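anyone seen this seq b4? input:
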Amino acid sequence: MLQILRHAPGCEHTVYVPAGVQALRSEVAKYAEVLPLSQLRSARPDVLHVHEQASRPLHDWLAAHRDVPALVTLHGLAEPLDFIHEYCTPVRTWDALDGALSIPNGIDFAAVEATGQVPVASKSTVVTCSRFAPEKSPMLFVETCAELARRSPGRFRYLFVGGSESEPLAGQTLAAWAELGNSEEVEWVPTCGHEEVLRRIAGASVFVLCSESETRPLVLMEAVALGVPAIAADVGGIATIEGLAQVLAPEAPAVEWADAIDAHLGRRAPHRPESSDGRMMALRYSWLYRGLLVERIRRGFSS
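predicted toks r here
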C-alpha cells in the first residue's frame, strides 16, 4: 500500500473529502494510507499529493525533499501555481502518470436532493456564502446589496452565510452590513454545517459569489443544482461551471452586480451536469491511486 500525504487548504487535520463525497474516502483507502498535514514534518511518503493551493509549510517541505515524487491535481485552473512549477515536477518519471492531472471538483447530489423544498420568502432574497477575507471581496457584496437597497427600498432580503469575527475583514464588513437594514432585512449566519448551507442557498432568489480569487467553487455548483440563479466573477475555473446565470468581469463594480441580480431574479431551473458529479471525481481519484500503486509495484520488481 502506498503512503500518500495529501493536502488541501483548510483541511489540515482530516482526510480531504470534497463536498462530503464518501465514495472518495473509500476509494482512497483501497490504495493508500492517507496522512494529515499535521504529520508533515515526520512523514516520509512515497508520493506527495498536492492541490493547487498550498500553505507555506508545505512549500518549505517540498523545497527540502525534492527526491519525493509530487503529484499535482488541479481543480479548475489551467495551470498550477508558480511554486508547484518550481518544486513539483509532476511525476514525469512515473510511466503510469504523465504530467499534472486535472480532476474537477464534484458535489454530492444526494445531499442536494435531501435538502428538499425550502419555503419561498416574501421578499426576494440575495445570498452569498463566503468569508471575510480579501480574496473573497466581502465588501463588494455589501456594496451590491446597498445598491439594490437604494434602487428598491424594502424589496430585498440580504443573507451572508459564512465567516467568523476573527477574520481580517470581519469588522469592516459587519459594520457596513449592519447599516443595510434591520434584522428582518439583513442576516449574517456564521460558519455552519453543510446541510444548513444548502438549506440557506435553496431559499435564495439569487446566489452571488463576488470572490476575486477562486478555483472551481463547490458552492456555485450546489446553487446551480438547487435551481438557484448563480452569479459570479470570471476568475479561476468559474467559467467552466455549467449552468451559471451570469459570469461578470472581475473588475465589475457593484452597480453591474446589482443589474445582474435584477435580471435573473426568479429564474429557477435545476441543472445537474455530469461534470459536477462527485462520484465521477471519486472514480478519477481511484484511477490516480491505482496507477501510482501499479507503478510502485513495477518499480519494486525492477530494483
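The chain has two domains: 2-106+277-302, 109-273. The first strand starts at residue 2 and ends at 7. kinda curious what u guys think
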